[in-house]
Here is the input.
Amino acid sequence: MSRRAGSLIIVLFFVSLCYAAGKVPERIVSLAPSMTEILYALGLEDRIVGVTTFCDHPSRAKEKPKIGGMSNPSLEAVVSLKPDIVVMTTDGNPKEFQMRLNSLNIKTYVFRARRIYELPDAVREMGRVLGIQDSAEELARRIEQTIERFRRARRLSGKKVLFIIWPEPLIVAGPNTAINDVIELLGYKNIASGAGMSYPKYSIEEVIRQKPDFIIIGRGSGHESIEKVSKRLLDRLRSTPAVRNNRVFYMSDSLYRLGPRVIDGMEEMAKILAEGGK
Here is the structure.
């Protein structure tokens, strides 16, 4: 039996026990913005009793009680909400916090997907744990269908892309990110794919040396004036093909979090690169 199959059997056994005891989780605390977005997409808004201070999408999530940040949640705040389960992620939540919750007999569920291709099955697993398999299956299939549609249409362009998370200091999207996955899915090359971390600092000299054909700048939450903030950086990058050929684009933060909005993010980036390549 494979490790994956063994893990799935354990999850299903846990869920069957919950059903048998009538204990499908009704009070859910989310410890990550991506988890909150998935919970809302699955129709669980009324079951969510607490979220992090960074959970801002959908906007209604801002009205939920706050338990602190992803990396430093308040144990007292979580316990006070009397959750049936705390939903966590391996990408940002400390393992030690999970252990402290478990020592208090508070159940936890850890969402382990980090890549866009892992997302559908992870959504299905969460659905089984929370007792909403039908909604989870529908969301998982929509993500899979979008990935497959772009995969079938993929043509290697040879063009190079730089995705900027923040201009000063220059932070870019590197490997093991949904952004990198989508760039490659669409047939382009991320110039930062060989970096040693997911969101590395990059030098101006390295960008000029790599000669990106496209530069995409993300609009992070609360940064509506990103064009103004990026102006000095783009002036320094004016020798790159992207800037010389007016192939600098701005895009939403829909690929920043591994959640339901990656569907919109794939569509948005595909449109940018297709229209920019004309």
